[in-house]
Design brief:
The complex is a heterodimer of chains A (about 120) and B (about 110). With about 120 residues, chain A is an all-beta fold. Chain A is about 0% helix and about 55% strand. Helices cover about 0% and strands about 55% of the residues of chain B. Classes of the chains: A mainly beta (about 120), B mainly beta (about 110). At the A-B interface, strand 5 and strand 10 of A face strand 4, strand 5 and strand 9 of B.
């Protein structure tokens, strides 16, 4: 039973397209996150939601828009994809905002390739 | 600004050897986490250290948090090929987001 699941695992698309990545967690956690991992394996936070409320919104282009329909789901929509958006995107969750200090549970990632 | 420096960036050693990797910062953290990431997978939490000077053991892995809560080390005894992976440290500060280091890529040769 997967704790944090992301779909799709791989996504290859052309520049200018719009795409979405979905994330679901069955851990009963209140807080979910999107991270971007670049080619040098550096993990950088993009967004964080706590109980469907946006609490972190890093310096990310407006083309990226997160949506949390309920606390078990956090989706990421990307408009007008650019070559520089190619990366691995990870969804993660923690029990609550304070519990982030004790660690995250990560999904297995979505490798996005923009051609 | 990169607040967490991990060293070495790469380490390749023979099976059975011991090794230590480091995570250093000029900032104080309320906790520090270590993760291992394998190719095609997300990072998996190994341990969280909270108290300055704390030592935690996970089988052959020993984690230590610095007294000033600015740095941490991971020591592996008798390394095995299954220890191969990317080791990431992450620092948490109360009421702020978690910061990740760039990782140490460890390769254990059989």
């Amino acid at each position: 039973d997967t704790a944090v699941s992301q779909t799709p695992k791989y996504l290859v698309t052309q520049m200018g397209n719009d795409k979405s990545i979905k994330c679901e967690q069955n851990l009963g956690h209140d807080t979910m996150y999107w991270y971007k991992q670049d080619s040098k394996k550096f993990l950088k936070i993009m967004f964080s939601y706590n109980n469907k409320e946006l609490i972190i919104n890093e310096t990310v282009p407006n083309r990226f828009s997160p949506k949390s329909p309920d606390k078990a789901h956090l989706n990421l929509h990307i408009n007008s994809l650019e070559l520089g958006d190619s990366a691995v995107y990870f969804c993660a969750s923690s029990q609550d905002w304070d519990s982030k200090n004790y660690g995250y549970t990560f999904g297995s990632g979505t490798r996005l390739t923009v051609v | 600004t990169q607040l967490l420096e991990q060293s070495p960036q790469f380490l390749s050693i023979q099976e059975g050897e011991n090794l230590t990797v480091y995570c250093n910062s000029s900032s104080v953290f309320s906790s520090l986490q270590w993760y291992r990431q394998e190719p095609g997978e997300g990072p998996v939490l190994l341990v969280t250290v909270v108290t300055g000077g704390e030592v935690k053991k996970l089988k052959r892995l020993t984690f230590q948090f610095g007294d000033a809560r600015k740095d941490s080390s991971l020591h592996i005894t008798a390394a095995q090929p299954g220890d191969t992976g990317l080791y990431l440290c992450a620092g948490a500060r109360r009421d702020d987001k978690i910061i990740f280091g760039k990782g140490t890529r460890l390769h254990i040769l059989p």
